[in-house]
């Protein structure tokens, strides 16, 4: 067997191990990246570096962008979450010798992270991988201040294409050793809600990750942090005044999946408190009342009937409402998008089993 054939056989074996679990993949995020400023929170191209030092002076994070591609964004992080989830699933199933290089079908990655599977989506995926490979991170976050390590999020990636049919044979991504080691550490990952991918705003995505890390196990009292400190930890461009205005608006909407947001007055600057919704429920809150009267829009119903013909959309909506009611943390930020994803997963599951 040729080297190329052996490589392809190995890739196919990894696909066989993983693909049956794609639709039900438990999502995991790398704990150390969930609080510090590692990613751009804006969709426009960022070239200005992130230069963060913790208040005690012990932790440093410096992120620099490639001028051709720009800095990796918090939406590019979705790819790393997919990788973290793959590795966590392999560990759960007791697979030995978990590789640093992962093989997958781009279609499955896009499905898991809630992206469309159009030609444009594949193009954007390639651009995101370019940013992840070209963004440079220098930090001492794991070295207790003794030394710094420099890395890019991924060491390399390849897109395998059948020479005869020009159809994709999958992608291979080699993770940075720093990121891979973080995933393999005991307690190195945290579970996240699938609704995370429905969050559209960069600041909201970053704030969810901070809440998940700090408020996830904090009980009824939650986690408190001053807005100026939060601003420094975000690495966001622009002024603190603008950041404060946007964070107050986010807290007022109180729409993060799984976590309540409360603003508290304290001295010159406000404090943000994050509380797990199931740890301290507030039935009077409109965000916590399960909306049995909430229905998908006519537009999304029409789209569902075109994209997934043959299904009773009304019946699937009842199943969706029942699924939401079982856990308040499932309340979506974007109801239509969440319902569309629910129907899509139902269609794919039934189509595969058939």
Task: Describe this protein's structure.
Helices cover 40% and strands 16% of the residues. Strand 11 and strand 12 form a beta hairpin. It is globular. The protein is α+β, with helices and mostly antiparallel strands and 354 residues long. The strands form four sheets. A four-stranded antiparallel sheet has the order 2-3-5-6, with no helix packed on it.
Topology:
Elements: H1 3-18, E1 28-30, E2 50-53, E3 60-64, H2 77-92, E4 101-104, H3 106-112, H4 119-134, E5 136-139, E6 149-151, E7 154-161, E8 168-175, H5 177-184, E9 189-191, H6 202-214, E10 223-226, H7 227-234, H8 240-253, E11 259-264, E12 271-276, H9 298-307, H10 313-325, H11 335-353
Antiparallel strand pairs: 1-9, 2-3, 3-5, 4-8, 5-6, 7-8, 10-12, 11-12
Number of domains: 3
Q: What multimeric state do the chains show?
A: single chain
List low-confidence stretches: 6-21, 281-293
Shape: globular
Secondary structure class reads alpha+beta
N-end to C-end Cα span: 35 Å
Average the pLDDT over all residues and give the rounded result: 84
Order of helices and strands: HEEEHEHHEEEEHEHEHHEEHHH
Count of helices?
11
Protein name: Plasmid replication initiator protein
Pfam families: RPA (PF10134)
Brief sketch in words of this structure:
Helices cover 40% and strands 16% of the residues. With 354 residues, it is an alpha+beta fold.
List keywords for this structure.
354 residues, alpha+beta, four-stranded antiparallel β-sheet, Plasmid replication initiator protein, three-stranded antiparallel β-sheet
């Amino acid at each position: 067997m040729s080297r190329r054939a052996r490589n392809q056989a190995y890739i196919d074996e990894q696909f066989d191990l993983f693909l049956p679990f794609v639709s039900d993949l438990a999502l995991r995020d790398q704990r150390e990246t969930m609080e510090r400023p590692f990613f751009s929170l804006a969709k426009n191209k960022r070239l200005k570096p992130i230069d963060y030092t913790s208040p005690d002076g012990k932790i440093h994070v410096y992120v620099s962008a490639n001028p051709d591609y720009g800095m990796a964004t918090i939406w590019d992080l979705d790819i790393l979450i997919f990788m973290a989830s793959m590795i966590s699933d392999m560990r759960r199933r007791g697979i030995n010798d978990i590789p640093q290089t992962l093989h997958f079908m781009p279609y499955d990655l896009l499905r898991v992270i809630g992206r469309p599977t159009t030609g444009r989506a594949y193009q954007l995926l390639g651009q995101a991988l370019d940013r992840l490979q070209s963004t440079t991170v220098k930090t001492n976050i794991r070295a207790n201040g003794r030394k710094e390590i420099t890395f890019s999020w991924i060491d390399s990636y390849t897109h395998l294409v059948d020479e005869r049919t020009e159809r994709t044979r999958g992608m291979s991504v080699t993770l940075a050793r720093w990121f891979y080691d973080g995933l393999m550490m005991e307690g190195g990952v945290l579970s996240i809600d699938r609704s995370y991918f429905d969050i559209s705003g960069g600041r909201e995505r970053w704030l969810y990750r901070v809440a998940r890390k700090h408020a996830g196990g904090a009980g009824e009292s939650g986690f408190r942090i001053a807005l100026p400190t939060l601003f420094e930890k975000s690495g966001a461009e622009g002024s603190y005044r603008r950041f404060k205005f946007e964070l107050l608006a986010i807290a007022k909407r109180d729409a993060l999946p799984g976590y309540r947001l409360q603003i508290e007055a304290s001295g010159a600057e406000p404090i943000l408190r994050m509380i797990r919704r199931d740890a301290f429920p507030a039935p009077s809150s409109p965000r916590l009342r399960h909306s049995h009267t909430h229905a998908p829009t006519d537009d999304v119903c029409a789209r569902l009937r075109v994209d997934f013909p043959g299904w009773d959309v009304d019946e699937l909506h009842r199943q969706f409402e029942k699924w939401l009611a079982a856990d308040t943390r499932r309340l979506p930020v974007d109801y239509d998008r969440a319902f569309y994803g629910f129907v899509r997963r139902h269609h794919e599951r039934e189509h595969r089993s058939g």
